[in-house]
Write a structure and sequence with these properties.
- 44% of the residues lie in helices and 10% in strands.
- It has a 4-stranded mixed beta sheet. Strands 1-2 form a two-stranded parallel sheet. The protein has a two-stranded antiparallel sheet with strand order 3-4.
- It has 5 domains: 2-46, no CATH class; 65-162, no CATH class; 163-266, no CATH class; 274-385, no CATH class; 403-517, Ribonuclease H-like superfamily/Ribonuclease H (Nucleotidyltransferase, domain 5).
- A hairpin with a 2-residue loop joins strand 3 and strand 4 (54-56).
- The chain contains 21 helices and 10 strands.
- The longest helix has 24 residues, at 345-368.
- By secondary structure, the chain is of the alpha/beta class.
- Helix 4 runs antiparallel to helix 6.
Length: 518
Amino acid sequence: MESLRKYEKASGQLVNNDKSYYYIHHKVSARVNSKIKRHTDMRNGSFTFTYLGCPVFYGRRKLIYYKDLIKKVMKSILSWQNRLLSFGGRYVLVNHVLQTMPVYLLSATNPPSGVIKQLHKIFTKFFWSNTVGVKSKHWVAWDKLCLPKDEGGIGLRSLTDISNALFAKLWWNFRYGRSLWSSYMLNKYFEPQIFWYLRNGTSRFWYENWTRLGALYYITPDAAREKEIEHIKDNIKVPDGEEDDEPCWMLETSGKFSVKSAWEFLRHRESQQTSYRFMWEKGLPIKISFFMWRVWKGRISTDDILKRMMINIPSRCWCCIPTDGIGLHQMIMAWWTAETKSKLQPIYRAMPAVIIWSLWKRRKYIKHGGSVTFYRLKQQHLSRYKPKFYYAKVLWRMPPSERLKCNTDGSSRGTPGISSYGFYIRDSSGDLVQLETDSLVLQNILQDSWITPWELRNQIEEIKQDMRTVQVQSNHIFREGNKLPDFLANQTLDHAEIKVHEFKLMPSEGRIILNMDK
């Protein structure tokens, strides 16, 4: 109470005892309880209660403590169930509304698995039947839906994986504090995903990953130790800064922790397939892409599939004619992998889904009445794939007579793969060097507009140091105006190192590009 009185005196605010409660364990004696009540002049509150949206309790976690969250989700679903929603509409509501409701609670508490299972059950019923109280066929299990699209899912996320990623964020915050709790979390979970960027050597020498190969404490064989020493000599810069060493999250290019990268690291995963990526072509309505996904997995109500589900139907399909030859998957893949111009590829990848969707609608209309026309199909789905052309005038410009200009470019065969770089310097008549590159990423990093990737910090700092030593101006140029370095970089990949000091020694194609720049 003395602390409350000091707060009232310092802030000028008074504590309203009629609206205040104190909470104690149920095993506390009545004598102690009455003494606290007499001194505080407040009422005794009972567990469980909600504070800032989170249940506060002691003892085992129970499902009933999280009933408010489940009621909130159900209330939203009940407001939607009378609307005629397609699978695309339900997908958007589940992905952007229902799955975001528990995020705040999951970031602060760890609910029992039964809560997450019940939420998944509610999401599943709404997605497949547009309501919760009606039974319907769940064509695909929820855990299969909660996979990235290129792994066979539809891009939803499991609340279990989200919860683990949010707890990883708590661990990252603890990691900065160097508390006892942070040390416990450090040794149990994510330490291999942290790299310490050396500044003045404040990181723990044996127990923290400042070599990018793991903590030195765990390296015991002599051969491995020699390998580690060579790696440190070649790649680690001696700390000479004034600031403390900085932890870098190795799963993000920027080195900053993100829940998205933690989720990607912790989530359940399946093998990626190119076919899954093609069926979610940009520009297609979600309902068509989702239907294509169901067709590919054999999860639609055709007669052959219903027979496998032991559902009695007529012995012969009333609208299908048996055919021999190429299968449906082979036919679709032929469309998707057809060799054509890059601007026509989106059309080739969208056409199978649009055609199959139209055939399915025609089948439904023949069976239940109605009609579908090619004009409607064209207007609704194909008109958005009209190629758009952009143009801009790009020229290489000579520097002033008192300057040098160095144009650079890089080339790589695969990621990762063999790489090379090319550059040339023109009009050498002064001390001022002008660097021009077609990498907008490098340009923004050198100008400190973008965060330096943690893997390139040493190299970028060396470049910046050189730029401070000599007066340098860095500019960006489009690739169309930077053809000669691109040509030299690709020539290096094919013919190893190339050095040209005279115009006549330049390959003929390079001389043509050089003259065209003039």
